[in-house]
Write a structure and sequence with these properties.
The chain contains eight helices and 20 strands. By secondary structure, it is of the alpha+beta class. The protein folds into two domains: 101 residues, Immunoglobulin-like, CATH 2.60.40; 217 residues, von Willebrand factor, type A domain (Rossmann fold). Strands 9-8-7-14-15-16 form a six-stranded mixed beta sheet. It has a four-stranded antiparallel beta sheet with strand order 6-17-3-19, with no helix packed on it. A four-stranded antiparallel beta sheet has the order 5-4-18-20. Helix 5 links the parallel strand 14 and strand 15.
Length: 379
């Protein structure tokens, strides 16, 4: 319906009330939008750029992107000894401080309970006869330091890694296996075509050919062919499926420390990284001759970096004593838990533990790899 009225200059057409209200509403929206644009001139455009628009310039190569940690909780086994080498067992949570990458962390949990042990006994098969005669009869005393919940896997190494019969908790079976372990009397079994084994035909020794060296220790131009790093790496792989949160994983390394670097597939850094990823501690026992000749640097390094310990043996009775001390030390450790804070640009994180008590020695691993020891924090 079109309404009209008389005006000063003639008839005026009047719009319907519904159309007038609509126009007023649109005008209000336009006015409000202009006000917002004036107050926020940096607002992004209403329409996003097309998919084929050029990408934003990349960040400078000098800016290293940060990697957020997936680790929710890190646990750190710690051994504390007094000046006489005895375990200190009366420390409280408040006496510990833990640092990650030089930043102090808050200890969220503190456990003093004993853990069962999963142990690879790694015995040097290339010892001098005098050293072998001291070590060999002492091996049976390993069982005396084990509890019924502990398990052990006996292996040997020289140029090659000789895997034993597997993990066992049966102490009678372990005693039998240790009694039958003979050192420096079983030569390495080289692969076909090994230069020490003589010529072969169809992977078998050629008729009349010399059968090679009958002793286990082989030396080339004064350098031992013993592959200690590879042996430790192989021992670590045997522990891979053991749960670090429920058991103490250790390698008991009995050796003179000699290592033929050129005969190892894995170097020290690679082996150390594998040990830290799995939370394995190495406890080294150096034989008598190596003690006087100072050839046990590798043994010290593995123990020091992984939170283990090193003992120096000079006679059979000391070896027997060492084994029980090692299992006691590994089983009865303090366990500290903390949740790392912030971000990090690297995968490896250093760890330092301090104790508010004088004249003590602290043994713990020197670091870990991000996400390795992730656990769900308690609810």
């Amino acid at each position: 319906m079109n309404l009209t009225q008389l005006g000063k200059f003639g008839p005026v057409h009047m719009k319907s009330p519904r159309k007038t209200a609509s126009l007023a509403f649109v005008a209000a929206i336009l006015w409000f939008g202009s006000r917002l644009e004036a107050q926020n001139p940096t607002a992004p455009p209403a329409n996003p750029p097309p998919h084929d628009a050029p990408a934003a310039p990349e960040a400078s190569k000098s800016q290293v992107p940060t990697i957020r940690r997936s680790t929710t909780e890190v646990f750190v086994p710690v051994t504390v000894k007094d000046r006489d080498g005895n375990l200190v067992a009366d420390l409280r949570k408040e006496e510990f401080r833990v640092f990650e990458d030089d930043v102090e962390q808050r200890i969220t949990r503190f456990i003093t309970e004993a853990y069962p042990i999963s142990m690879v006994v790694l015995i040097d098969n290339d010892l001098r006869q005098k050293d072998a005669n001291q070590v060999e009869p002492s091996l049976i005393s390993l069982v005396g330091g084990m509890s019924t919940s502990d398990e052990a896997f006996v292996c040997r190494f020289d140029q090659y890694f000789h895997e034993g019969k597997g993990f066992t908790k049966d102490q009678d079976k372990l005693v039998t296996e240790l009694r039958r372990t003979e050192l420096a009397k079983r030569s390495s079994t080289p692969p076909a075509g090994d230069p020490f084994g003589g010529p072969t035909i169809n992977n078998a020794p050629a008729p009349g050919a010399p059968q090679g060296d009958t002793t286990s220790l082989r030396v080339i131009k004064g350098q031992p062919t013993k592959a200690l790093d590879d042996a430790v790496y192989s021992a670590a792989l045997l522990l891979k499926d053991r749960d670090s949160k429920k058991r103490r994983k250790i390698i008991l390394l009995i050796s003179d420390g000699q290592n033929g670097a050129k005969f190892n597939t894995h170097n020290y850094d690679e082996t150390r990284a594998e040990l830290l990823r799995q939370g394995i501690a190495v406890y080294s026992v150096a034989t008598g001759s190596s003690y006087f000749e100072r050839k046990f640097n590798r043994l010290v390094s593995y123990a020091h970096d992984t939170g283990g310990d090193i003992y120096y043996g000079a006679k059979q009775t000391t070896f027997s004593d060492f084994y029980s001390r090692i299992t006691e030390e590994a089983r009865n450790q303090y366990t500290l838990f903390y949740s790392p804070q912030g971000e990090s640009k690297v995968d490896y994180h250093s760890i330092e533990v301090r104790v508010r008590r004088p004249d003590v020695t602290i043994l713990t691993r020197k670091g870990y790899y991000g996400g390795t020891f992730a656990t769900e924090a308690p609810k």
